[in-house]
Amino acid sequence: MAIIFLSPKVEYTCLDNSSNDTDICPCSSPEYDKSIFTNTIIMEWDLICDRKWLTSFTQTLFQLGTLSGSVIFGMASDRFGRKKPLLAAVVIQVSMGIIAAYVPDFWTFTFIRFLVGMSVGGTMVTGFVIVMEFVGTKYRDIISALYQVPFNLGHMLLPVFGYYIRDFQQFQFAISVPVIILLLYFFILPETARWLIAVKRTDEAIVILERVAKVNNRPTENIRRDVEMYQESLEKSQLKKGNILDLFRTPNLRKNIAAMSFNWLTCSYCFYGVSQYVGQLSGNVFINVAASASVTLLGTFASIPLMKILGRKTILIVFNFICALCLLILSVIPEGVGSVICASIGVVASFIVFVVVYLYCTELFPTVVRNAAIGFSSMMARVGSMLAPFVIELRDVAIWMPPVAFAIFPLVAACITFVLPETKGCELMTTIEEGEQFGKKSSSDKKG
Predict the structure, then answer these.
(1) Phi, psi angle pair for 429, to nearest 5°
(2) What is the distance of C-alpha 190 from the center of its chain?
(3) 14-31: per-residue pLDDT in tens?
(4) Which one has a higher pLDDT value, 213 or 239?
(5) How far is 316 from 330, CA to CA, in rounded Å?
């Protein structure tokens, strides 16, 4: 979201034009309006006229970095444990974030931001896995929603940083320095017991579980016996691990992954796109972004009771429709308070979908291909967020075009979701065969 304040909307006067019109192209001698921002990446490297597309390109490369990081660090966390890849991602995030504030040219800045994106992908994916592997089944849906709260708080803090720091280099430095606190993970972060058990490092897993039990005032005497029995049961029922191709071999799983991954692409496309679009709307950019971020936080909290009351499928259909409706209204109403409200509702609706698809995807696919399904869906989400910056550029063609372009996807996603089975209250599946049968029978026959 930092791109909102690294490259905010900026007016300029073209000094080499006799009529002195503003925003004229081509323009070799622009004079920028510095009444709001003293320096941005647009001012620093003249990203106007035929170079204007580079503003979107730098954000698209950041999201490509996030996609790459999700895949690379995801695979590394399965191979080397959860702790080491997370620590590597944190070091990259701290160092590259600070370096980005001091690089002299656009292409170096964009490459460094690509590396920051990779580290963000690593911390998000690995962090989520660590949290889920330490949390019991009872609280998994609540914690998967609450996991998004720090993201919302960071989003809300950005306009505060942007308001007090109007130079993009100082802003980049200021948002990167607090990440240093994550270096404490070197000393306080344990490896997850689940991964240690999976790779047969049982003694290390027992030490961690005994420490957790002591912190939670739970008995420790049966931990070793329980872990060894669990290890034996795993070895007896060793399942053949699936891969991404297995998601497309059979018709039911193929239909489910197609519909699910399109939902991931849509909510990421709308959330990141419309959040950045809010920064382009008329009015105070700081208030607009703060309002959009604040309602997103409310959406995260609202998703918890919604997941308890409604089915996953119902939530996706309803909130995709709400998102599409708000964006279509946004395309026809004049800019002002109403447009910010419509955009904010669109953002919060897409974020509620974002929260729910994490859980829905976990429940919809069997154990042997669950990671592959989440990994593929996450990749599609990044594709959506890579497309979004260029859609915002359609504003130069016609003001109504970006909202309409953003509205089409959730409208289609809501219709596609009707083909998915409901998973609320169903036990998690284990084998490909169970996944292929799931949803084909009547609800009374459904088994996990």
Answers:
(1) -85, 160
(2) 25
(3) 887 655 566 678 888 888
(4) 213
(5) 21
